[in-house]
Amino acid sequence: MNKKVLLMALLLPILLIWVTSDFAKDIRQSDEITALQKTTARPATEGRVHDIGTLWNTVTNRGQYGHPDQATPSMEWPGGSEAHYLWEGRFWVGAIVDGEKYVSHADYGNYEWYPKEGSSFFFGPGKSILDSYVQYDDLYGISGHFPLGIQVDERALAWSMGDYDDFIIYEYEVINVGEYTLNDFYMGWIYDNDIAAIADPTDPNLDDLVDYEGWDGIDSDNDEFDIVDPFDLDQDGETGYDEWGWPYGFELRSVTGPTNPNYDASKINPDGFFDEWGIILKEDGPVINWQTANNWASAPVGTPATTMDGDTLKGYLFPRSASIMYDGDYASTPEMDIGERNAAQPLPGVMFGQLIYSDIIHEEGVFPYQTTPEDTFMRAFAHQWWNWESDPGTDVEKYDYLSAQAAASTQLGVHYNFLPHPFEVNAPVFDYRWVTSTGPFYNFAPGDTLRAVYAAGVGFGFQGMRENLDNAIRAYYAGAEWSDPLHPSAFAGKQKDTHYVLPIPPPVPNLTYSALDAGVQLAWDSSAETAIDAMLGTTDFEGYKIYRAMYNPSNWEMIAAFDNRDEPVYLKDTNGELMSEEKVNLPDIVNTYVDTGGYFMGKEISRPINGLRYYYAIAAFDPDKEATATRPAMLSQESARSNYLKDPSSGAPLAIVPTELYTEPYIEDFDMSKVKVVPNPYKGTALFESRYEDKIRFTNLPPACKISIFTITGDLVDTIYHNDGTDAELWDLISRNRQKVVSGLYIFLVENDEPEYKKHVGKFVIIR
User: Fold this and answer.
1) For the whole prediction, is pTM greater than 0.85?
2) Which class does domain 1-223+320-502 fall in?
3) CATH numeric code, 511-621
């Protein structure tokens, strides 16, 4: 049995159902919490889904990220793929009070954070395209918990634009609302990742590898590697990354394990900069100097870096500060499955959590650590990892991980603030967690506030991961007036600067759609056509793109487009690539559309098929904009494909199913024997079914009938009255007693009274 499943099975007898309007269900421990919820003005714990970009994740109002059983998206990437990268993420703080170590945390059903009294859960446009804003504290008095007196104001920010849609940025204001001055105070982000869970067919939690991306001093030599050339500075057409986004020179060899299947030392392509350092080019930035002599010009270290065209590189060169995790080779299976590259659905994603900003730099007005002359940048205090067999259970154990004092911080006789890759200390692939921490903050007094910014996301291999790490930094400092990655600033307080000034697409139109016979009718509002672009101060709308997906809301196909131009235009796909080499005349703007197939951009669009599940989205887009004296040129942006139908309570995707409509008088000799159940057997998730839905379908029904469902012993499970004039009816596998039905063989009876009584009996199987 999956060890986490076993753990949850052991906990279930003492866990309570977490009832919430948007999170549906979760787990809680302790009767005291439920009693408190009934007797105070604290709102219920809940979670909501950020699904505006390519990365989908659930954010809560209790310091928890994702969902342990993936009942809602848990770092699902790409969104709609059902490949989850996170079991559960958590926010911890720890301090020393009167010589004792204490931690307030969210952890495995034992959540010490609770929504602040009188707070609300904001979810909507804000600093980003989709913000969430929550407040929680550790003051509700769980038995055995020592409250530090901490309130957390947390904002999550997500975007839909191509460079910024693979991560979510979290801002934290941590306020001492208690009565103690807290010493050696730390903040930490704990991510228990299971890379590509659900889609990884064999124990996705047992073949993970964890590492740190950034400057880590003598703890590892990884930060001094130079084996890739992401900007192709030598203009040889090669970057040093393979087709999976992994460096050819990344050997990944353990004592007993295999090497990276694409390892090829001859394809190492250095560029003169350490691979774990980010580069953001900016014309008015400082000159960037070579870090190594392995550059295209063989120029000395410390001299200005240039392109082969003679242009001096300007901008910011800085070490990243990220914990990362990716899929390794599962030793218990014979095949090489690094990144699940041989699976039907390859899963080459690398998940990351990056510290972008911390108030630690302002305690003395300078960067606080500086353990070597090279250590002059803002960074995390520590990166630690452990596996499920050594999960910290007590406050002391948790604090020791935050402060890099745990027993696991010493490997092979060496103490590490930044634990190196498991293979460097002879550890295998396994079920790892990481903590990225910042601190220590001294004399954190009542009334004081500390701030931090953390980004979590997924990228395509190491190449995509690094691009997204740097894009998160770009997003944070976009529009900054005086700060940059070399001179960090906060988002609030005395050190506040401007942040997140990004080109924003038109708002997402409000979309509805309904099923037809072998077709779907769509309609949407005109809100995007009159919206004011905050950056420009004027309306900035050009047209609509219609997308369709089968089975799940991913792998979208553009099936139509409209614009308000009276001239031919180049039509671009979601990645900004031209869909044809020639300009095309698009139809005029409309707000309705009927999908019955046809032709678009020279490609045949298939007609929807009755009985199959479809999803639709309408994206509004703006035009390309040339550079002006006050802003750079900006490419066309389109709104997120997030307006497909969703369940109003859980946010789960809802498919539309084209269905035959009875438009002629009822035929007396209707053949009831054609009625059937699909899928049969039901195995939890059918090919055409989103994993968040739990339904079977009765098909070939008469326009009105009664459906009775029985157990094999004859007990009535549920009754459905079908009378919508279609030939199909869904059943959500919930009994008349509002319980999920279990695995087994079931009997169904379909009865029809008009124009004469007819019936049909069949059977189906459910396998959980």
Assistant:
1) no
2) mainly beta
3) 2.60.40
